[in-house]
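We now fix the convention by which a protein and its fold are recorded. The integers have meaning only within a learned vocabulary of local backbone shapes. The record below shows the convention in full.
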Amino acid sequence: LLLQWNLVCDDDWKAPLTTSLFFVGVLIGSFISGQLSDRFGRKNILFLTMAVQTGFSFLQIFSTSWEMFTVLFLIVGMGQISNYVVAFILGTEILGKSVRIIFSTLGVCIFFAIGYMLLPLFAYFIRDWRMLLLALTVPGLFCIPLWWIIPESPRWLISQGRYKEAEVIIRKAAKINGVPAPAVLFDTAEMQDSKPQQQQKAILLDLFRTRNIATITIMSLLLWFFTSVGYFGLSLSTPNWHGNAYINCFLSAVIEVPAYVIAWLLLRSLPRRYSVSGTLFLGGAVVLFIQLVPADFNVLSVGLVMLGKFGITAAFSMLYVYNVELYPTLVRNMAVGATSTASRLGSIIAPYFVYLGAYDRFLPYILMGSLTVLIGILTLFLPESYGSPLPESFEQMLKVK
């Protein structure tokens, strides 16, 4: 790709810009996907954004210039993060509490890691970038039959006053699970009383409508931002590994699997605040220790960086579950979209933290470690959602400590 469009010498700045613009697309997608699915439904936006990702990835194969490839790549980024966020919200709203946690950690994250592991495998055997892109795009077509299998979120339908559609989905689920459904699911008088409130449209400012909600939102944005800086900063600043680049990429994916397993185990049995805070403390403290390692102990440095990444990766995967449990149905997807946007800002800024290493080798680790520990302390002031039902209204939102 670099040689085909001569992205070398005076034009070598175009290669990293392509990646940066992809993250810009991811940022835009994070911002708008939540608002779109809160307004038009989880299922509709999920399949729309999957179509955008697959369709524009396919168009990239026929790119005739770097400019065309980059613009399409930005749009692919918008679709990619949007369907990830919406699929996560849809799954958490459909599934029960016990299954929700395993879906949010092992389900979503482990399958993300498996896809990450398959990438170097595909790239090893398919060296032509157009054919590789085709091989990575085709699996998107297998998602089409899922339209007739995946239901809309009953919680979202109820929040929009569409009780009959929600009842059909709930009764079908009860039948599949062999659970007898009550004769009356929704009281008619109660439905009419709540209808005006349920049919209201949420806007971004609703995330700041009261002091309590605004405090939770601001703390969540900071938490996602600095966790992302730590995650991507460590990924980018990991000392160069010797050996095969494809194997190294594979190992980088494998190391995230135990982090996701630990996150699942913590979410099953421990309060959210302590689980997220504890893993952030682990990641941040280990990274701070790197400056004490002698220069010739490179293997130990790599080990500490990967242990730090393990802690921050575990915290990152738990943030989705925690965020979902803090916000009511009306703005839940919007809240995850907003915090995910803060996360993308963190990923864009992370390379600049790494760049500080040109002035002092340990400065990036000192900054990332300190910020990660501080954000771990801030997490302790958020409400505890462990064992609480998902809030349906702003009045049911938990209070900050």
Observations:
- The domain at 1-150 is CATH 1.20.1250.20 (Growth Hormone; Chain: A;).
- Residues 197 and 310 are 43 Å apart (CA to CA).
- The two ends are 52 Å apart (CA to CA).
